[in-house]
Design brief:
Blueprint: H1 3-6, E1 8-15, E2 19-28, E3 31-41, H2 56-73, E4 78-85, H3 87-91, H4 95-105, E5 110-112, H5 115-127, E6 136-141, E7 146-151, E8 156-162, H6 166-173, H7 181-195, E9 209-213, H8 214-227, H9 236-249, H10 265-281, E10 288-289, H11 294-315
Parallel strand pairs: 1-4, 4-5, 6-9, 9-10
Antiparallel strand pairs: 1-2, 2-3, 6-7, 7-8
Helix pairs in contact: 2-4, 5-11, 6-10, 7-10, 8-9, 8-10, 9-10
Protein name: Ppx/GppA family phosphatase
Pfam family, one: Ppx-GppA
């Protein structure tokens, strides 16, 4: 048996409204080494019916993904596992049906976290992945909700979870694949109403660092690299350039962006609508893509709890 199998392993699973993420790490000489990362676009939010129940197809997609994930770490001898679910399972009236079936696949409890807890974990993941300033603004556009966070270098000060997401907006405003000015206008207006509900703490004249976390912002950044000279940061001007390109092609079937995951293409317009509204409402000048996200927050908190437990045992 290899030394890797004998090591203590940490497994974090983020069950988002659009994608499920798996991160496997091990403890190595007192530090954490990432061994494996994996993402599957499950689109749970696409299976939410009008009555807020989750349809059987979405449940099956989620369970199939968990079955695959379980195969990645089931043979490891020493594992600490944490599964976190977000917006779709928060609102699904039959979430117990999914959880009961999931327990038969991965015998660990599924935490359905609140929007504020989701935001806190997102910031925690970013905080452990890069250097932050004393005043940071973070947005994470998920499949069913969008989290917005104000934080310092090592802590959060304001957490918000808003009812707008790239999957839910795709179904509301871009369901037929058409990319029209009217569709963008309607989506941006709906998102603007959400951002207008944020407290005054979010409306500063300028921010030292604004970060966009997770797949939606990364996909927008990758799309921009195809049509502009964008290297790192996002601005309202280049976001509008991407919108102009999408309206010009007219339909998602006509989008030609070679470096973009094809599964992300239907979510590009709704995600862009939300991000443009964010830039406008909060007067953002520039944004960078964050290096961490929710799954890293779950992983590092799992590791921290073990360290705290060990310290407590040593004191005793």
């Amino acid at each position: 048996m290899s030394s890797t199998e004998h090591s203590l392993h940490f497994v974090a699973i983020d069950m988002g409204s659009n994608s499920f993420h798996l991160v496997i790490a091990r403890e190595q000489h007192g530090s954490i080494q990432i061994l494996h990362k994996e993402k599957r676009q499950v689109q749970l939010a696409k299976g939410l019916r009008a009555n807020s129940s989750l349809d059987n197809d979405a449940i099956e997609r989620g369970l199939a993904c968990l079955t695959e994930f379980n195969q990645r770490f089931s043979d490891l001898e020493q594992t600490r596992v944490r599964l976190v679910a977000t917006h779709t399972l928060r609102v699904a009236t039959n979430c117990h049906q999914f959880i009961k079936a999931a327990l038969k696949i991965i015998p660990y409890p599924i935490e359905i976290v609140s929007g504020h807890e989701e935001a806190r974990l997102i910031y925690n993941g970013i905080m452990h992945s890069q250097t932050l300033t004393e005043q940071n603004l973070v947005i994470d556009i998920g499949g069913g909700s969008t989290e917005v966070i104000v934080g310092k270098a090592t802590s959060t000060s304001h957490l918000a979870s808003l009812k707008c997401g790239c999957v839910s907006y795709q179904q509301r405003f871009f369901y037929d694949g058409a990319l029209t000015k009217d569709n963008f206008k309607a989506a941006q207006s709906a998102a603007d109403k959400q951002f207008s509900q944020l407290s005054n703490a979010y409306f500063k004249s300028s921010w030292p660092l604004v970060l966009g976390s997770s797949g939606t912002v990364k996909a927008i950044s990758e799309a921009l690299q195809c049509i502009t000279d964008l290297q790192q940061s996002l601005t309202l001007e280049n976001l509008k350039s991407l919108k102009h390109y999408l309206v010009g092609v007219g339909h998602i079937d006509n989008i030609k962006l070679d470096n973009l995951d094809p599964k992300r293409i239907p979510l590009l317009a709704p995600g862009l609508s939300i991000l443009i509204s964010f830039f406008k409402r909060l007067s953002i000048n520039e944004m960078q893509v964050a290096q961490g996200a929710l799954r890293e927050g779950v992983l590092y908190e799992l590791c921290l709890k073990l360290s705290s437990l060990r310290a407590s045992n040593n004191v005793q």
